[in-house]
Amino acid sequence: MNINEIIMQISEEVVRIRHELHQYPELSKQEFMTKNRISQYLSSWDIDHVAGIAETGLVGIIKGNETGKTIGLRADMDGLPIQEMTDLPFKSKNNGVMHGCGHDFHMAILLGAAKVFKKIEKELPGNIKLIFQPAEEAYGGAERMIQEGVLENPYVDHVIGLHVMSHLPVGALEIKSGKLNGASSVFQLKIIGKSGHSASPEKAIDPILVMSHVIVGLQSIVSRSISPFDTVALSFGKIRGGEKSNIIPEEVIVTGTLRCLNTETRAFVKQKMIQIVEKTAETYGAKGEALFGDGYIALTNDEHVVKEIIDVAKNCTYTNTILSKEKPSLGGEDFSYFAKQRPSAFYHIGCGFKERENPDQHNNKFMGSDDCIPMGIELQVKSALKLMTQQKS
Question: Which of 89, 147, 239, 248 is deepest in the core (most CB within 10 A)?
Fold first, then answer.
């Protein structure tokens, strides 16, 4: 049976699955109901799988020629802590939680691909691993799945992932070789001074004043310590200090994010930040400290895998535009851990409506068009098949 005929036959069912998943979003590391529902679908289609990897994730396997390549297809599962404000008839029923990033699309597309592969399993030149990954938004579920062996038994040769994008119209593929997403770190800066009355500032050490100089000094790292050809974004998201207008507080805390395309640059900037915080505080008689929590590593697409996906897309029924992403994003994406372990590729497909507003991801009015689902299934299936037919290295 022709792959596109199968996609046409299953599309309505996959759309219904997407609507169901959209109604019951769950936060990172809490995707228990989502895991159970996906497991029920895989079981009903006689697809072997293991539920509970990384606690709330699943891994399915469809075996063809076991001596051939094994291709992993990944979909993330978690929702966001957002109150949905759309007019969708299938809007979220979980108060304060929303699939505002499109992970419901990703899961539905992977389930659709699974159904296609199951129907043609006897013809498969290799194997398919279905990777339903939890905790992309906050806790790095990809890294945990890898640690628990998702890329082994059988050994996965390549991993492919996709993300719907509302700024792109349905039918558009956006892809890029090399760096696609940046590395990120969160930080907390603290200045400890000496509390006192605002009428006698000479008896206090003002941490607000010190932190002001720290923030200005830190901004100079990007402008004066980093090459203009490198990419760094240093942002301050929250500042907390003081209780009353006439009291100089004892401490001030600032939190923010550091985003870079290179891990070496990230290490350099972190060291410069520590130096500026500590030395600036020392100059004013205060104490300064900088604490970091590393987020995701940079996502680097394999050139060969990207080329194969583009070649496939040129002959896909549901793809009408192929865009080369000009610049990488500094947004985090934990598919980066799969791409670090295996030659892999991550790409974007359009889910934007033609005749209505298309709010960005992480917006409480994000929706996305169901019309992107057949395209996602076709690209995932045909890209995996193309990679399967190539000789093992």
Answer: 248
Q: Where are the domains of the chain?
A: 3-180+298-388, 183-294
**Residue pair 137/25 in contact by the 8 Å Cβ criterion:** no
Listed in order, strand segments (DSSP E) in 134-176 are 158-169, 172-175
**Domain boundaries 183-294, CATH class:** alpha beta
Strands (E), the chain: 48-53, 57-63, 70-76, 127-133, 158-169, 172-175, 178-181, 183-192, 196-197, 232-241, 247-248, 251-260, 287-294, 299-301, 321-324, 345-352
- Is the pTM higher than 0.90? yes
Q: Are strands 196-197 and 247-248 parallel, antiparallel or unpaired?
A: antiparallel
d(CA 300, CA 333): 11
Burial of residue 121, with CB atoms counted within 10 A of its CB: 0-12 exposed, 13-18 middle, 19 or more buried? middle
Q: Copy the structure tokens of residue 300.
A: 């680097």
The strand pairing partners of 63, in sequence order, are: 127
Closest CA to 333 of 160, 163, 158, 208: 163
**b (16+ CB within 10 A) / e for 340-354:** ebbbbbbbbbbbbee
358/169 Cα distance (integer angstroms): 10
Count Cβ neighbours within 10 Å for each residue of 220-236 and write b for 16 or more, e otherwise: ebbeeebeeeebbebee
Strand, helix or coil at 114? helix
In CATH terms, the fold of domain 3-180+298-388 is: Aminopeptidase (3.40.630)
pLDDT in tens, the chain (393 residues): 699 999 999 999 999 999 999 999 999 999 999 999 999 999 999 999 999 999 999 999 999 998 899 999 999 999 999 999 999 999 999 999 999 999 999 999 999 999 999 999 999 999 999 999 999 998 899 999 999 999 999 999 999 999 999 999 999 999 999 999 999 999 999 999 999 999 999 999 999 999 999 999 999 999 999 999 999 999 999 999 999 999 999 999 999 999 999 888 999 999 999 999 999 999 999 999 999 998 899 999 999 999 999 999 999 999 999 999 999 999 999 999 999 999 999 999 999 999 889 999 999 999 999 999 999 999 999 999 999 998 776
